[in-house]
Amino acid sequence: MSLRVPSLDRLVSELSKLPGIGEKTAQRLAFYILRADSSFSSRLQEALFDVRERIHSCPTCFSYTENDDECDICSDLHRDSTSICVVEDPSDINRVENSGAFRGIYHVLQGAISPLDGIQPEDLRIKELLARIELSESSENKVKEVILALDADLEGDTTALYISKLLSGRVRITRIAHGVPFGTDIDYIDKRTLGRALENRVEI
Amino acid sequence: MSLRVPSLDRLVSELSKLPGIGEKTAQRLAFYILRADSSFSSRLQEALFDVRERIHSCPTCFSYTENDDECDICSDLHRDSTSICVVEDPSDINRVENSGAFRGIYHVLQGAISPLDGIQPEDLRIKELLARIELSESSENKVKEVILALDADLEGDTTALYISKLLSGRVRITRIAHGVPFGTDIDYIDKRTLGRALENRVEI
Q1: H or E element in which residue B57 lies
Q2: A95 has pLDDT over 90
Q3: Which chain B residues are Cβ-neighbours of A17 within 8 angstroms?
């Protein structure tokens, strides 16, 4: 049993719905919030509210933005709009940006094809990707390359195959390399990863 | 760099102030909240608000309660009010209750003596504990035993010593046993715990 304080139990129950937060962690967080000064709790409430009120999808790339129109990356004229990196979720853009290895623009699919979860190609932003490429063909910034930065799992593979078939002949389509992560001992690599790393070997 | 969405950054920054939640976990949680349906976010906001608005300290034991007066445990006539279990925080009451081994009432000190953190005996609810015991002496439910269920660390030890000196001669004072946790191999026990377990050995 708990302390029999209904609002505390409710907070624990809501917090434990977050990914990776179990019942015990949720209790610890709830007690921390109770003990912390009240401004922390109100700042957290405000942040939750603002995120819901202010953030919407960028109409071009479907990432998150607070702008009235396109997101900061889409509207940045210094970026190379002839190269589109396709990702599953807006959070993936963070990762690619952090790598510092890409200066093009993005397209967020908002998921990956997964028949088991009932996610079909038409549920994703694939037709919008096609429309962007078609639209660019009549402009001076024609899309030359689509880089697929999708997860290295069954859903990512399926989605990559689907998109590459759809776009083949129109643009150059590449997929980020799968192989041994930097700083990793080959002893600890699973056989599928090592298999892919061997297939995708490069000349040195 | 991030997605350059200020309200998202603010939510990540607030979430990462929670104990055990680093920057990466906070980002994962924030993206989850953004993706989840909006009712989850509003329920979480509401729960945070309610916890702040409705919960206050019980005037008797200083645990958390939503009641106008005493908390459910203090006002429960079926509990043995001659035995007070002293804990550092309200969350400790949860643990003791879950053990099912105690049917008395509680007293929350709201911390432990810690000169290094500037926490002196007068910052804790020690005088209120003394007052409760004194008040009980003129009633039919005179407090007979004070069980100290404090943390097994330096602060807990100091606090236990302080309270036991203060109350000595008035009531029976005990402290929960420190020893080998249930289900633990002696191989993995540190020497201080094993030392205490030997000191506190019991006849079988």
Answers
A1: strand B56-57
A2: no
A3: 40
Answer yes or no: are the C-beta atoms of B87 and B106 closer than 8 Å: yes
Write the single-letter amino acid at A111. Answer: G
**Distance (Å) from the alpha carbon of A16 to chain B's nearest alpha carbon:** 11
The type of residue at A164 is S
The pair of structure tokens assigned to B153 is: 């660390």
Q: Which of A123, A130, A122, A120 has the alpha carbon at shortest distance from A166?
A: A130
> Which residues 30-59 in chain B show a CB within 8 A of chain A?
30-35, 38, 40-45, 47-52, 54-55
ipTM above 0.85, yes or no: no
Q: Binning pLDDT at 50, 70 and 90, where does residue A42 land?
A: very high
Longest dimension (CA), chain A: 67
Cβ atoms B33, B11 nearer than 8 A: yes
Q: Out of A122-126, A148-152, A188-192, B90-94, pick the least confident.
A: A188-192
Collapse the DSSP code of B12 into the 3-class scheme (helix H, G, I; strand E, B; otherwise coil) and give the result.
helix
**Partner residue opposite A33 with nearest CB, options B5, B35, B51:** B51
Which pLDDT band, with edges at 50, 70 and 90, does B62 fall under?
very high
A172-175 vs A80-87, strand pairing mode = unpaired
Amino acid at A119: I
Q: How far does the CA of residue B40 sit from the closest CA of chain A (Å)? A: 8
- The set of long-range contacts for A9-15, using a CB threshold of 8 Å and a minimum separation of 24, is A10/B47, A10/B50, A10/B51, A11/B47, A11/B48, A11/B50, A11/B51, A13/B47, A14/B40, A14/B43, A14/B44, A14/B47, A15/B44
Q: What is the value of pTM for the model shown? A: 0.80
Residue B155 token pair: 């602060």
**CB of B90 closer than 8 Å to CB of B42:** no
Which of chain A's residues have a Cβ under 8 Å away from the Cβ of B18? 29, 32-33
pLDDT band at B1 (very low <50, low <70, confident <90, very high): very low
Q: Is A11 on the interface with B (CB under 8 A)?
A: yes
pLDDT tops 60 at residue A25: yes
DSSP string, B81-142: EEEEEEESSHHHHHHHHHHT---EEEEE-SS--BGGGTB-GGGTTHHHHHHHHHHHHTSSS-
Is the confidence at residue A29, as pLDDT, over 90? Answer: yes
